[in-house]
């Protein structure tokens, strides 16, 4: 879940979208027109893989690790977002902004030392951008993620610096986050999202850089989340991690930070290799900085290495998250995007992604 | 004595001359200044207008690399957007709906945009919601949100947060001012709304007017061109510039040429003044030459004087020109009232290159005007010059006429050559050659005319003396004549052209305004078939012919032609007509400019960006739409476009119907929303209005013409008075041999009148020839319309009269002053 989509969205078109984004992040009364996320919904697959256009926002968020033939370790992120702005439903125009789609892709290469990234955005329609209902198939011009009949996901993205064409094969059933997919994000019960993850996706495909394609393999994590109103007031950002553990276990944890780094809410879940799931209450999750890194571009100080403590029935388990390299800050302000840190991390006995938002500027809530 | 060591002598010569005759030198400097000022002012105004216009175009276009533009105001199918967006070489594409909108009485361009695409392709066209407005809405996709440029905010007198009812395409809707468009250039009234709202609220569902394209690096537009349907064309910044340039280029170049004429006459003034100054100082020059000054020393002296005059005059001229341009822009607008640039304010842009150019032209005119007479003077042997300060040309040597005839002949040939790039370059060259030929032929003409007169004698003493003087001193006579002829010729040429044009327009107005009442809806809305039926049934109306005019882009680098849908009947007056048309074609009738611009002949099959095959059934006269117009039967138009709204109507009244009553009835029957946009006019009013427009667009022409005439007359006056003053000794001598003062004055008056008459007649003849070039070469080549010559006899006669009177009058006045001194002193000057 905790992707700074709201900020990214907000600045996308140099401010024009600002108001829309603020609506997203603020607990506004406008959301009354959208369905409210409540506990007790029953997820049906593959329906939930598809779009839920009634809800205000939704995303298909893939993060993972890639290995090249030369055994070099890379991180990647491919994300598709969908949002439903409040518009006049009577407008018969094909340009009516009933759905807006965004996509983002980034590549973490330690030998480059910073992120390579690219993005797409469009209102749905004209065959140029659409998000299918019923199963995953989201496309934005030449960018696309879809689920094949056999359950595999296929994702293709092209940026000026790299292109990815990946097949993601699930090896585990979806992990419903929170209470059967109802994931609370703040003290109020309506501050929540529907949320499931698909960890341990086997990755195969190709990575193209400087015009040459090379085969890659790896492991990825898919986050699926949709909501109309999920962030409580007072938050300035969040820390989130999703880890594929080598024994087959999967761990997701997040905390929502208030001013001064105060933890407003936290949550997550741990699915053991045998399939049993432990869900975390806000008091069960603790993030502690091990190493901070100051961005030379923005001056923001990110806790790029963290010690994550989770309370399990057998006791507190500590996982040290160490980044692939420190500078995984995504500074896409040139294209109207926010600044945040989204990086591949390793932990003893596993690997995954760490996301740190609200460190350059507080999120406007 | 080298030139360098002659500095002192030169200094004395120049300084002495300037001390002795400051007024004459000042006058010549002023003449140059006026020429430079006019040229520079016209150039500045034109340049500023064009750059403002292009700036406006760029603002509305948002500086996209390439655009796909609709060829008609009906736009093209929005499905093209997907094809363009995915075409090879297209990095991104932004769909746009463009409408002319009104709010209250203010007009602005309303753009319907997809903010996400525009952010990538044309970021200058998207707004920022200022802090303070409600931020808890989807401002970017809010259908009500209207973003306005600062100029639009000003003319509409609204602020962010205000509600505003906007009308376009015959529909009105309420929007909310959400913010500003900081990327739009100052002075451009533009509003931006979400594209879906514009399509829905202003009746444009399924249609786009434009697709702005961001190209992938290093790609051509070929792939794009291949997929375009008939109703769309590719536009680039280059074709935009060509198009806005084409809009008024001919008009601007013609004004530039007129300004150069003013400079040319200024040059003549310098020439005549310097000729006489040289003539008077011949003895001084001769003396210095005998003391060792080289021959070219004289030329150098006079050239330096000319340079000084040129420098002073040109500097003054630039300042004056800038001031005039500023005044003209603030008072008349960028097209000087000609109506080319409809809206957008024009800011004066200083043009350094043009300033340098006109400065140099002014200096060149002054130096050339000085060097020519100096060269003649330098050829005279010093010994002869020392004794005799008279005419340098021996009246007994025959004057060659071949160079003059050759110049005129070459000019005649040049007039037959076609335009270059839509500009009548050879036409102007032809006029210059004919003028030069005419002037070169003046000494010959003066001799030819005066020789028979000089042989006869026995009239009054005064006229005999006058004729013999002119015959005996042909150089002086020719000098005076040059100025007269040049200014008369130009004046007559312009007068004949404008008279012919105005007469043709007047006659044409008579042809087209053959109905009793004309009704017109302003703006883009119009009468639907129901409203048309209601109007048709108005009591007192015998017939009502509805029509519609829409712009139609035939070529991306040309301004659109006007497509006129109207009933076509036998009353339609044609210049040319096809005998028969190819089977299965729809007839269209081209205006003369359209036929010439697109080189379409009667009977030819042509392709229009509309459904169907078309053939040219005829060509009609049109002086209103310089970019061309196409008439199509309104039934054919409805079939091709599906558009049944009409914006204009020509009404025939029943016999005895009261026009005022019918007017009121028509107004009352107009649909309510349209009533305030409808205007009804009688033919007389329209005719008056059209001629007013004509006169306004020629106002600058009249002004330039007037200045040329004044400078020319000033030249004549200066020449006459200088010649007279130079002949003081001659008058003293005449007094001594018994000629009375009165007779001398009469002699001078006769000389002046004779010069005026000869010069006037020659000038009028030359002007007549030049007028033919203007009317039949320059006008058709510049504006693509033809007309018959009409001679303004009144003006011709008064010009001739004014010249005779001015020449005789100035000669008399100068003569009175010259003979005021006593005879003894006058003779003593002869040493």
TrEMBL record, chain A:
Q: Where is the signal peptide?
A: 1-26
Cite the GO molecular-function annotations of the record.
hydrolase activity
What are the AttH domain coordinates in residue numbering? 57-228
Q: Which UniProt keyword terms apply here?
A: Hydrolase, Signal
Q: Which Pfam families match?
A: CrtC, Lipocalin_9
Q: InterPro entries from the xrefs?
A: AttH-like_dom_sf, AttH_dom
Look up the domain of life of the source.
Bacteria
Show the PANTHER family listed in the entry: BLL1000 PROTEIN, HYDROLASE
| Protein name listed in UniProt | Putative secreted hydrolase
Organism annotation: Sphingomonas aurantiaca
UniProtKB/TrEMBL annotation, chain B:
User: Can you name a GO cellular component term?
Assistant: plasma membrane protein complex
The record's subcellular location field reads: Cell membrane
State the source organism's domain of life.
Answer: Bacteria
Q: How does it sit in the membrane?
A: Multi-pass membrane protein
Residues of the signal sequence?
none
Pfam families registered for this protein in UniProt: FtsX
Q: Where is the ABC3 transporter permease C-terminal domain?
A: 258-380, 707-819
Q: Which InterPro entries match?
A: ABC3_permease_C, Lipoprotein-release_system
* GO terms of biological process kind: lipoprotein localization to outer membrane
Alphabetically ordered keywords of this record? Cell membrane, Membrane, Transmembrane, Transmembrane helix
Membrane-crossing segments per the record: 257-278, 298-329, 349-378, 399-419, 425-446, 477-498, 702-723, 744-771, 791-815
Q: Indicate the family of this protein.
A: Belongs to the ABC-4 integral membrane protein family. LolC/E subfamily.
Q: What is this protein called?
A: Putative ABC transport system permease protein
């Amino acid at each position: 879940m905790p992707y700074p989509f709201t900020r990214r969205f907000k600045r996308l078109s140099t401010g024009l979208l600002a108001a829309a984004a603020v609506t997203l992040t603020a607990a506004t009364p406008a959301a009354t027109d959208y369905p409210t996320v409540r506990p007790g919904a029953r997820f049906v697959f593959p329906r939930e893989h598809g779009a839920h256009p009634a809800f205000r926002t939704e995303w298909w968020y893939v993060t993972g690790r890639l290995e090249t033939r030369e055994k070099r370790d890379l991180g990647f992120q491919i994300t598709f977002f969908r949002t439903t702005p409040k518009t006049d439903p009577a407008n018969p125009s094909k340009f009516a902004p009933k759905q807006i789609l965004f996509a983002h892709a980034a590549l973490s290469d330690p030998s480059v030392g910073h992120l390579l990234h690219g993005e797409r955005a469009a209102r749905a329609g004209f065959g140029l951008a659409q998000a299918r209902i019923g199963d995953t198939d989201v496309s934005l011009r030449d960018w696309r993620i879809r689920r094949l009949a056999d359950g595999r996901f296929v994702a293709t993205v092209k940026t000026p610096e790299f292109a990815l064409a990946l097949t993601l094969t699930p090896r585990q059933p979806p992990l419903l986050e929170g209470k059967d997919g109802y994931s609370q994000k703040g003290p109020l019960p309506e501050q929540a999202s529907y949320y499931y993850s698909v960890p341990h996706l086997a990755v195969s495909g190709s990575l193209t850089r400087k015009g040459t394609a090379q085969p890659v393999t790896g492991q990825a994590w898919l986050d699926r989340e949709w909501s109309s109103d999920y962030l409580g007031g007072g938050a300035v950002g969040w820390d989130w991690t999703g880890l594929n553990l080598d024994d087959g276990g999967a761990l997701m944890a997040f905390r929502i930070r208030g001013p001064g780094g105060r933890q407003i809410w936290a949550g997550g879940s741990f699915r053991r290799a045998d399939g049993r799931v432990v869900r975390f209450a806000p008091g069960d999750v603790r993030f502690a900085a091990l190493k901070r890194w100051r961005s030379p571009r923005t001056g923001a100080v990110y806790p790029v290495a963290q010690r994550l403590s989770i309370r399990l029935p057998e006791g507190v388990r500590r996982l040290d998250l160490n980044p692939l390299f420190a500078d995984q800050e995504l500074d896409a302000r040139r294209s109207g995007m926010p600044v945040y840190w989204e990086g591949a991390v390793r932990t003893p006995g596993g690997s995954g992604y760490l996301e740190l938002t609200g460190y350059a500027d507080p999120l406007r809530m | 004595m080298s030139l360098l060591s002659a500095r002192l002598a030169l200094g004395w010569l120049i300084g002495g001359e300037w001390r002795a005759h400051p007024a004459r030198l000042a006058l010549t400097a002023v003449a140059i200044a006026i020429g430079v000022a006019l040229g520079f002012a016209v150039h500045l105004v034109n340049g500023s207008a064009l750059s403002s216009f292009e700036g406006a175009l760029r603002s509305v276009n948002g500086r996209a690399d390439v655009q796909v533009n609709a060829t008609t105001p009906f736009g093209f199918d929005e499905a093209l957007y997907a094809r363009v967006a995915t075409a090879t070489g297209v990095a991104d594409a932004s769909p746009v709906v463009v409408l002319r909108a009104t709010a209250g009485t203010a007009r602005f361009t309303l753009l319907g945009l997809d903010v996400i695409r525009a952010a990538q392709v044309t970021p200058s066209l998207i707004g920022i919601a200022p802090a303070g407005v409600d931020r808890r809405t989807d401002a970017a996709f809010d259908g009500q949100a209207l973003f306005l440029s600062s100029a639009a905010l000003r003319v509409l007198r609204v602020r962010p947060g205000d509600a505003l009812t906007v009308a376009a395409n015959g529909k009105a809707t309420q929007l909310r001012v959400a913010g500003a468009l900081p990327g739009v250039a100052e002075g451009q009234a533009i509003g931006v709304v979400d594209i879906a709202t514009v399509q829905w609220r202003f009746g444009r569902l399924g249609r786009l007017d434009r697709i702005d394209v961001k190209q992938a690096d290093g790609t051509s537009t070929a792939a794009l061109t291949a997929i375009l349907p008939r109703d769309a064309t590719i536009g680039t910044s280059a074709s935009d510039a060509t198009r806005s340039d084409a809009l008024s280029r001919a008009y601007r170049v013609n004004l530039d040429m007129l300004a150069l004429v003013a400079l040319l006459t200024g040059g003549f003034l310098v020439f005549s003044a310097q000729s006489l100054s040289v003539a008077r100082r011949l003895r001084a020059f001769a003396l210095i030459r005998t003391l060792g000054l080289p021959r070219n020393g004289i030329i150098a002296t006079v050239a330096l004087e000319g340079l000084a005059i040129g420098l002073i005059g040109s500097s003054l001229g630039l300042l004056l020109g800038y001031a005039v341009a500023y005044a003209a822009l603030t008072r008349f607008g960028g097209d000087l009232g000609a109506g080319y640039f409809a809206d957008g304010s024009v800011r004066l842009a200083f043009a350094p290159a043009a300033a340098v150019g006109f400065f140099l032209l002014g200096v060149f005119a002054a130096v050339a005007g000085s060097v020519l007479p100096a060269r003649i003077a330098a050829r005279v042997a010093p010994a002869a010059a020392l004794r005799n300060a008279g005419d340098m040309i021996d009246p007994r040597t025959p004057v060659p006429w071949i160079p003059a005839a050759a110049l005129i002949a070459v000019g005649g040939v040049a007039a037959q050559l076609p335009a270059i790039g839509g500009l009548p370059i050879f036409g102007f060259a032809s006029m210059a050659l004919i003028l030069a030929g005419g002037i070169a032929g003046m000494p010959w003409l003066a001799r030819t005319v005066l020789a028979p007169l000089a042989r006869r004698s026995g009239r009054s003493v005064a006229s005999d003396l006058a004729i013999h003087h002119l015959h005996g001193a042909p150089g002086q006579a020719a000098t005076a004549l040059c100025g007269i002829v040049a200014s008369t010729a130009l004046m007559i040429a312009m007068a004949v052209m404008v008279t012919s044009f105005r007469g043709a327009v007047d006659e044409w107005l008579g042809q087209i305004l053959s109905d009793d009442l004309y009704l017109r809806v302003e703006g883009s809305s119009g009468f639907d078939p129901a409203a048309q039926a209601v109007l048709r049934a108005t009591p007192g109306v015998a017939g009502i012919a509805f029509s519609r005019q829409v712009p139609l882009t035939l070529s991306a680098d040309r301004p659109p032609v006007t497509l006129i849908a109207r009933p076509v009947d036998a009353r339609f007056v044609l210049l040319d007509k096809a005998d028969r048309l190819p089977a299965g074609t729809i007839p269209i009738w081209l205006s003369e400019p359209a036929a010439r611009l697109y080189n379409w002949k009667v009977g030819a099959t042509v392709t229009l960006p509309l459904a169907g095959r078309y053939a040219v059934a005829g060509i009609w006269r049109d002086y209103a739409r310089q970019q061309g117009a196409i008439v199509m039967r309104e039934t054919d138009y409805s079939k091709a476009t599906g558009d049944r709204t009409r914006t204009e109507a020509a009404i025939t009244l029943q016999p005895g119907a009261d026009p005022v009553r019918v007017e009121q009835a028509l107004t009352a029957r107009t649909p309510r929303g349209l009533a305030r946009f409808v205007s009804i006019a009688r033919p007389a009013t329209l005719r008056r209005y059209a001629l007013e427009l004509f006169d306004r667009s020629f106002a600058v022409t009249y002004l330039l013409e007037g200045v040329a005439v004044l400078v020319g007359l000033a030249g004549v006056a200066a020449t006459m008075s200088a010649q007279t003053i130079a002949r003081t000794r001659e008058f003293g001598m005449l007094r001594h041999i018994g000629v009375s003062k009165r007779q001398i004055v009469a002699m001078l008056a006769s000389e002046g009148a004779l010069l005026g008459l000869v010069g006037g007649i020659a000038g009028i003849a030359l002007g007549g020839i030049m007028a033919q070039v203007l009317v039949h070469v320059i006008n058709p080549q510049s504006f693509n319309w033809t007309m018959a010559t009409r001679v303004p006899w009144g003006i011709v006669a008064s010009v001739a009269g004014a010249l005779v009177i001015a020449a005789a009058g100035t000669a008399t006045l100068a003569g009175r002053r010259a003979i005021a001194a006593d005879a003894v002193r006058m003779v003593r000057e002869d040493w």
